[in-house]
């Protein structure tokens, strides 16, 4: 982990003292979630960037944004400039987005190129990050071209995996095996042929709240009866399952009695779907901030992108089966789904921002949790605490 500033060390110590008061170790009924500073303190936010987002598998971008060889996508992960690139062998790699000479950022916008070229001194690198040339490096007209001893100047690669349409990176290199990490999800996805899943469109939202609140809200069905009239009519509270967790995966789901235009009513389903999946919705969180739901006719991805201690951006990416994602004959059916997600999310944003404001109150500091609905909330808090450095 990079060296912490004095302010970050102080807030880390303060945080660890607060979580050691038993809030995360007591039973759910007697304990609580994270202290307020985890949602409001800029130094804690900076600490999360250096721990939570460096040491875990973190979503970085969509593979469909890198469809051609040479496509480059600049992103930010853990406060670090990163570039994703599609290579000649049709694999996506990730690099620190910086020239090895004087530190200029290499790629500032989505583009396609045969190589990386630094605008500062025209150092160039292959799509696999290998140094190609350093013009005039040894003097005027004395070029240094691809010499074997120059490997120290290659771009710094970042651990990267592509899972379906989703690209994940691990900056520290210490996150463990990705397939093992997502095994609780892949087990639940048996029966869905996700090779038929096609991206359709995405929705973007700016939220005046800490990034953790949308994720915590996403996995928690307790608020449905109060905040989402349509969703409560679709599946009532007595039909909803309590969320569960398995290591760094959070899980929830329900069976629905009848389809709806927004949920498996008008669009093609995944082929050969087992009977038990034909009236089923499941949703998942991969810690820290990647989430998605799956239904017979769609996959809906949620990303909470940290922006500041009390601000985040949310992306909802919508996928349908085969031609349903783009064909004109399904445009009205897709619109039902898109409008539904837009409406549901706006219902959530209002309450999420009110929860953020409540994190400024001395009358709240972690919450009184439901022993039925909220064990997953306490577990999520423990994952944050463990990443920050709590034993």
- The overall average pLDDT, rounded, is 92
Percent of residues in helical segments?
25-40%
Which spans of ≥5 residues are poorly predicted at pLDDT below 50?
A: none
CATH topology of the largest domain: Naphthalene 1,2-dioxygenase Alpha Subunit, Chain A, domain 1
Percent range for β-strand residues = 25-35%
Number of helices: 11
Structural class: alpha+beta
- Overall geometry: globular
Number of domains: 2
Overall radius of gyration: 23 Å
Distance between the termini: 16 Å
The biggest beta sheet reads: 7 strands, antiparallel
CATH architecture of the largest domain: Alpha-Beta Complex
Could you name the CATH class of the largest domain? Alpha Beta
In N-to-C order, the SSE pattern is HHHHEEEEEEEEEEEHHEHHHEEEEEEHH
Number of β-strand runs: 18
Looking across the biggest beta sheet, what order are the strands in? Answer: 1-11-10-4-3-2-5
For CATH, the homologous superfamily of the largest domain is named as Naphthalene 1,2-dioxygenase Alpha Subunit, Chain A, domain 1
């Amino acid at each position: 982990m990079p060296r912490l500033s004095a302010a970050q060390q102080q807030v880390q110590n303060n945080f660890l003292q607060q979580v050691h008061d038993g809030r995360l170790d007591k039973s759910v009924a007697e304990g609580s979630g994270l202290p307020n500073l985890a949602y409001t303190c800029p130094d804690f936010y900076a600490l999360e960037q250096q721990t939570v987002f460096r040491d875990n598998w973190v979503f970085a971008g969509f593979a469909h944004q890198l469809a051609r060889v040479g496509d480059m996508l600049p992103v930010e992960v853990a406060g670090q400039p990163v570039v994703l690139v599609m290579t000649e062998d049709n694999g996506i790699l990730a690099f620190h987005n910086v020239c090895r000479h004087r530190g200029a950022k290499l790629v500032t916008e989505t583009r396609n190129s045969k190589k990386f070229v630094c605008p500062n001194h025209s150092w160039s690198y292959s799509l696999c990050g290998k140094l190609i040339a350093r013009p005039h490096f040894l003097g005027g007209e004395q070029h240094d071209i691809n010499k074997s001893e120059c490997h120290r100047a290659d771009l710094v690669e970042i651990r990267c995996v592509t899972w379906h349409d989703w690209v994940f990176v691990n900056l520290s290199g210490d996150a463990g095996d990705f397939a093992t990490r997502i095994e609780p999800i892949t087990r639940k996805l048996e029966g869905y042929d996700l090779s038929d899943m096609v991206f359709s469109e995405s929705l973007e939202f700016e939220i005046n709240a800490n990034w953790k609140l949308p994720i915590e809200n996403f996995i928690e069905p307790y608020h449905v009866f109060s905040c989402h009239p349509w969703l409560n009519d679709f599946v009532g509270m007595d039909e909803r399952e309590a969320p569960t967790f398995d290591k760094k995966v959070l899980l929830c789901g329900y069976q629905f009695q009848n389809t709806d235009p927004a949920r498996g009513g008008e669009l093609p389903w995944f082929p050969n779907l087992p009977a038990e999946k034909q009236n089923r919705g499941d949703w998942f969180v991969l810690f820290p901030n990647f989430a998605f739901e799956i239904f017979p006719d769609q996959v809906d991805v949620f990303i909470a992108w940290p922006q500041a201690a009390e601000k985040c951006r949310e992306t909802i990416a919508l996928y349908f089966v085969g031609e349903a994602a783009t064909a004109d004959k399904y445009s009205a059916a897709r619109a039902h789904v898109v409008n539904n997600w837009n409406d549901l999310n706006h219902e959530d944003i209002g309450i999420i921002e009110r929860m953020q404001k409540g994190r400024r109150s001395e009358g709240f500091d972690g919450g009184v949790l439901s022993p039925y609905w909220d064990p997953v909330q306490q577990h999520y808090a423990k994952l944050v605490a463990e990443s920050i450095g709590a034993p």
